[in-house]
Design brief:
- The protein has about 100 residues and is mostly helical.
- The chain has one domain: Serine Threonine Protein Phosphatase 5, Tetratricopeptide repeat (Alpha Horseshoe).
- Helix 2 packs parallel to helix 4, helix 3 runs antiparallel to helix 4 and helix 4 runs antiparallel to helix 5.
- The protein is globular, with a radius of gyration of 13 Å.
Length: about 100
């Protein structure tokens, strides 16, 4: 589904973490990192334990030039992944975090 189709569903009965995650990913793929950040934050407002959304939020922040925001997203995402037992997401975000904090 395209960005306009996803946006059309926002605010409706299907609105939620998954829709906002999909929209954030589509926006990031389209090169609109700032809009992606906003949608991924919305996804996390629906589900703060959504580790994949934290991971993508970090990538979107980084693409938007916000290294501190990316590091914060990945730290919070690592905690969310630990709470859910999502070992793969935890490992990936730990690697991403190390890359931005050790230079």
């Amino acid at each position: 589904m395209n960005i306009d189709g996803l946006r059309a569903q926002c605010g409706g009965p299907r609105d939620g973490a998954l829709l906002r995650f999909a929209l954030g990913g589509a926006l990031l793929d389209a090169g609109d990192a700032a809009a992606a950040v906003a949608e991924l934050r919305q996804a996390l407002a629906f589900d703060p334990a959504y580790s994949a959304a934290w991971k993508l939020l970090g990538k979107a922040c980084l693409a938007a030039g916000d290294t501190a925001g990316a590091a914060d997203a990945w730290r919070r995402g690592i905690e969310a992944a630990r709470q859910r037992g999502d070992k793969q997401a935890e490992k990936e975000m730990t690697v991403f975090l190390r890359r931005v904090t050790t230079g």
